[in-house]
Design brief:
With about 325 residues, the protein is of the alpha+beta class. The chain contains 5 helices and 18 strands. It has a 10-stranded antiparallel barrel with strand order 1-2-3-4-5-6-7-8-9-10. It has a 6-stranded mixed β-sheet with strand order 12-11-16-15-14-13. Helix 3 (about 180-200) runs antiparallel to helix 4. Mean pLDDT is about 85; it is low at about 1-25 and about 305-318.
Length: about 325
């Protein structure tokens, strides 16, 4: 009977119907405003959607998003770079000890814990890196600079006697690209490529063509990047015209397809050619910019409508 009485009392306490129950179970502290102190906003300059560059680099090496979480008490970082490394960090001001704390974890098993404070316009933290078979000391800084953020870090494996650079990165606001902007870039790049072909400009062709590029012609022949560059180097084809019109660019994320009507006229091995054909060129966005990855050309049209409005019988071509 003592057990039953005890359980009944416990239930009544839980639902708050026994006299004095509210006094025995104090109200939880209010959640609103717990992290409104100015110290919690010291790291807010890092909040944003960022392209990340090496300090002297010209192209992004990673994408980082930093946002407030848990009612503004925590900064949550999501990181992904070109190598497939992904990481997340959680940063929070510890008002009991008056220090900032950050824990960083990656899909490679690395664990970094650092702590520090905000002084003279710089967030500085020190701690330890482990979890990936190595154990070292770490010191890192974050400094806002004209709308960007510079993050540096160094490590020590001899208890702080010597330090080696780990990384030196600049976070720049991520550019918001639209399909229309991408279409204009790809259209200009494809026009640049046609001009490079016309002038046998091997350097420009090599820069635009992807290493695994393939061209399929209307006759079923295939050509690689190496084939096209070798032909340009030989100088056996001399172009009088290599222009396209009726160009249309369609963009789907990181892929773009160009369709256009191409007029090519000149001599190949001393023999004249004059043809108009349709082509589709596929471009893919890479860390180094758009690259021409696949081309497909039709057979020469029965009668060629040239850019100057004239029409001539087909004389050959791709």
């Amino acid at each position: 009977m003592r057990v039953r009485v005890f359980l009944s009392a416990t239930v009544l306490l839980a639902v708050g119907v026994m006299p004095g129950a509210r006094a025995l179970a104090p109200d939880p502290p209010a959640l609103a405003g717990r992290c409104d102190a100015p110290e919690y906003r010291q790291f807010d300059f890092w909040i944003g959607d960022w392209d990340v560059f090496e300090v002297d680099g010209t192209r992004p090496v990673a994408h980082v998003q930093v946002e407030r979480s848990l009612d503004g008490c925590v900064l949550h970082e999501l990181y992904e770079d070109d190598s497939g490394l992904r990481g997340e960090s959680l940063s929070m001001f510890d008002r009991t000890r008056h220090v900032w704390h950050q824990t960083w974890m990656t899909n490679g098993g690395q664990l970094v814990t650092v702590e520090g404070d905000w002084q003279e316009g710089v967030m500085s933290m020190r701690g330890r890196s482990s979890g990936n078979g190595e154990d070292s000391l770490v010191r890192a800084t974050w400094k806002p600079a004209g709308g960007s953020v510079r993050e540096t870090a160094s490590t020590s494996r001899d208890r702080g006697h010597t330090w080696n650079k780990w990384f030196d990165l600049v976070f720049r606001p991520r550019e918001t690209r639209t399909s229309e902007q991408d279409a204009r870039v790809v259209a200009a790049l494809d026009t640049q490529y046609q001009q490079a072909v016309k002038h046998n400009d091997v350097a420009t062709m090599a820069k635009i063509l992807a290493d695994d590029f393939v061209l399929v012609t209307g006759s079923g022949k295939t050509f690689t990047k190496h084939d096209l560059l070798e032909e340009a180097l030989s100088g056996l084809t001399v172009y009088e015209h290599q222009e396209d019109r009726e160009q249309v660019v369609r963009v789907w994320g990181d892929t773009a397809v160009v369709t256009a009507k191409l007029w090519e006229k000149g001599t190949r091995d001393g023999k004249p050619f004059d043809a108009t054909l349709w082509f589709s060129d596929t471009y893919v966005r890479t860390p180094d910019g758009w690259r021409y990855v696949f081309g497909q050309a039709s057979l020469p049209l029965p009668r060629n409508s040239h850019a100057d409005g004239t029409q001539t019988p087909s004389g050959g071509g791709a």
